[in-house]
């Protein structure tokens, strides 16, 4: 293996790990700020070759963040508009938020495990 390929492979591995880490930070620690950093990674590296592991993980985490934010916002707003401002509605909103948020955190943990194992994301493909 040539020395240049080894460095490029490590760079892609590092990029994949960074993308998954910022995705989980966006969900768990620093929402908003982490998404801005993830969007910056997407703008800089997301348009490259999709077969590279770094580009694959950057694209997946960016679009999963958009999908997660959209599902949480639209779902909670829809439930609030449908059920009104009642105690029963808030129970359903909290349950919906917890279910969707936990699902996206689990996808993030799987994505981080795949990036640490140097494997591309298999689903969903964006």
TrEMBL record:
Source organism of this protein record: Alkalimarinus alittae
Protein name, per record: Uncharacterized protein
Transmembrane spans: 21-42, 62-83, 89-117
Keywords associated with the record: Membrane, Transmembrane, Transmembrane helix
Domain of life (superkingdom): Bacteria
Keyword Transmembrane helix: yes
